[in-house]
């Protein structure tokens, strides 16, 4: 028997194979022994098909089939026949046919598995420890198949648009790029370290200095940061850079890529152009620079309604130039206990507290602070919210503008989720533009780059204070998730030096960290810009799952541990000495 000369895939059996001999190979999904007949569901990457072992077709194959168990790897030869009308499985693509087996070869046996391939509720740590088993599950194969198709379509688009697919180093120089990086000790240069590339940022700018003009890469990136559902220590991004362009050129190319990719892979027609929204507009209306626009719940500034308030905690906020914001929930009909529950939920999201006001019978306002509200308060609310009626509710948070609005933004998402007002199956993209150039770090008491220190400032920045300068930066957001971001880069050394100075970096420090880039800027550096999109996040959203671990073949846990390889692990001192390293005892506090 020719074990591996497969005719087709298990899930590809159709009418064209009827009454023909086929050879298949795959895994035993399940076995059903009906006495004289044995039925096996055989699975490979393409799907599943039913096999029938009948001693009338082959006594040897029928005898062997008694020993088959789940996840045995087998090869078979048999004839494709129609199923009887009463046994047709309409939910299976191959459900109209079955294969009468004449030859069976057991290629590999399987002992009882730690979990069934057909289970759905499996402990994640166990799934990752036996990831090769987890990846046999059809849903995981679909996720990775989607990933493959999306990446192929992206590459196809960029090739057609004249971009070069170029690799950049993974082992590179340790530079301050806004995130903690991984260090790799050098064996041949004692006391020196490489860093794993956080992104190809500096290299792709140097590729523009090289005159290559249009570059892209499906790049592996590494960051030693605290993990969460959409973050891993190693991740993949689509990296793009172009010369002689402005913001609209970059955005147009990315929109074209998204349109091509979604149409080719999912048959989705993306309407262009994608909506643009400034950072200030997004934050003011949604409490976030990555707003989910699938639903219309907005954040409202109601500071003026409390200008004369006698409530001490609100007066204190106003005296410190703070703001009072709210979510207006129209016709929600919360009970008092439900409203108190929302106070607790707001506190879990980081709020010190949340005030609620509800419109009751005869426009009487219900609230823990109702007796402190002026008699005209309903009428004042009605002016701002003309649709105000019985059952409407306000969730109110007060504080410093940025912190209060961030909390309202989180609360907005939580409310939408629990009230079920987020439409299913919708892809809502938005460009966020005109970001602040800098943000103030309260711990270090210094200005830091909002994106990275190579982002170009908008025109007129020279005479402004750091907190008022806008950047030529933009993010692409999908369903409330930041897919990626980019900017027009600084291409002249004087402007770059000034930005470094505003970040508190001395000339010596700048030369030490970025001397190669500063020199390139003095040797004919073209205007350029680019963008990077998180591939894992994009696939996560398209696959309608909530964690990027579901769309990565071999991810780490939320603690950065690899249960499959049991990494990271200690290294022998002899091995460390080769890299001129030694362990230091942990300091006792």
What does this structure look like?
With 589 residues, the chain is an alpha+beta fold. Helix content is 28%, strand content 24%. The chain contains 15 helices and 23 strands. It has helices at residues 59-65, 124-129, 131-134, 138-160, 201-209, 247-266, 279-286, 312-319, 336-348, 377-384, 401-419, 493-502, 507-520, 535-542, 573-578, and strands spanning 21-34, 37-44, 47-53, 73-82, 97-108, 164-165, 171-172, 183-185, 193-196, 214-222, 234-243, 276-278, 299-301, 323-329, 355-359, 365-366, 393-399, 429-433, 438-441, 446-449, 473-478, 481-488, 528-534. It has an 8-stranded mixed sheet, with helices on both faces. A hairpin with a 2-residue loop joins strand 1 and strand 2 (37-44). Helix 4 (138-160) crosses helix 6, helix 4 (138-160) crosses helix 14 and helix 12 (493-502) packs antiparallel against helix 13 (507-520). The longest helix has 23 residues, at 138-160. It is globular. The mean pLDDT is 93.
């Amino acid at each position: 028997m020719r074990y591996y000369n497969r005719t087709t895939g298990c899930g590809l059996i159709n009418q064209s194979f009827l009454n023909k001999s086929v050879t298949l190979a795959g895994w035993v999904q399940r076995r059903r022994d009906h006495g004289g007949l044995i039925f096996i569901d055989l699975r490979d990457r393409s799907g599943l098909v039913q096999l029938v072992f009948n001693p009338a077709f082959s006594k040897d194959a029928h005898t062997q089939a008694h020993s088959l168990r789940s996840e045995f790897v087998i090869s078979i030869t048999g004839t494709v026949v129609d199923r009887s009308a009463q046994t047709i499985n309409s939910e299976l693509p191959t459900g109209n046919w079955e294969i009468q087996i004449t030859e069976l070869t057991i290629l590999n046996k399987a002992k009882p598995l730690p979990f069934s391939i057909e289970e759905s509720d499996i402990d994640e740590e166990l799934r990752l420890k036996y990831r090769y088993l987890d990846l046999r599950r059809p849903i995981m194969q679909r996720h990775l198949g989607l990933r493959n198709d999306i990446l192929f379509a992206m590459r196809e688009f960029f090739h057609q648009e004249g971009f070069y697919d170029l690799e950049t180093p993974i082992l590179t120089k340790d530079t301050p790029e806004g995130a903690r990086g991984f260090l790799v000790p050098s064996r041949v240069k004692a006391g020196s370290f490489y860093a794993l590339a956080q992104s190809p940022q500096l290299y792709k700018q140097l590729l523009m200095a090289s005159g290559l003009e249009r570059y892209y890469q499906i790049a592996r990136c590494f960051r030693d940061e605290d993990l969460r559902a959409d973050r891993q220590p190693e991740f993949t991004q689509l990296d793009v850079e172009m010369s002689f362009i402005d913001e609209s050129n970059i955005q147009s190319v990315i929109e074209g890529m998204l349109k091509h990719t979604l149409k080719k892979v999912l048959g989705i027609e993306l309407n262009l152009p994608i909506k643009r929204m400034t950072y200030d507009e997004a934050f003011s209306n949604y409490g976030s620079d990555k707003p989910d626009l699938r639903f219309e719940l907005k954040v409202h500034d109601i500071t003026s309604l409390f200008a004369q308030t006698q409530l001490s905690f609100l007066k204190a906020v106003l005296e410190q130039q703070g703001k009072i914001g709210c979510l207006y929930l129209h016709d929600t009909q919360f009970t008092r206990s439900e409203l108190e529950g929302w106070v607790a939920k707001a506190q879990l999201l980081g709020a010190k507290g949340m005030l609620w006001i509800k419109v009751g019978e005869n426009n009487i306002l219900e609230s823990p602070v109702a007796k402190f509200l002026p008699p005209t308060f309903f009428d004042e609310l009605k002016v701002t919210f003309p649709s105000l009626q019985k059952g409407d509710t306000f969730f109110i948070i007060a504080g410093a503008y940025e912190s209060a609005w961030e909390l309202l933004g989180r609360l907005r998402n939580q409310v939408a989720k629990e009230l079920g007002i987020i439409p299913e199956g919708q892809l809502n993209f938005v460009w966020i533009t005109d970001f602040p150039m800098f943000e103030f770090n309260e711990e270090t008491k210094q200005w830091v780059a909002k994106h990275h220190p190579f982002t170009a400032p908008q025109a007129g920045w020279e005479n402004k204070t750091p907190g008022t300068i806008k950047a030529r930066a933009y993010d692409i957001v999908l369903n409330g998730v930041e897919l990626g971001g980019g900017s027009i880069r600084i291409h002249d050394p004087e402007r770059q030096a000034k930005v470094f100075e505003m970040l508190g970096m001395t000339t010596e420090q700048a030369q030490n960290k970025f001397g190669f880039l500063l020199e390139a800027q003095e040797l004919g550096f073209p205007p350029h810009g680019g963008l990077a999109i998180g591939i894992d996040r994009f696939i996560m959203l398209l696959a309608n799952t909530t964690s990027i671990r579901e769309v990565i073949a071999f991810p780490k846990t939320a603690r950065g541990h690899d249960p499959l390889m049991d990494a990271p692990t200690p290294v022998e001192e002899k091995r460390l000495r080769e890299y001129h390293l030694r362990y230091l005892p942990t300091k006792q506090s």
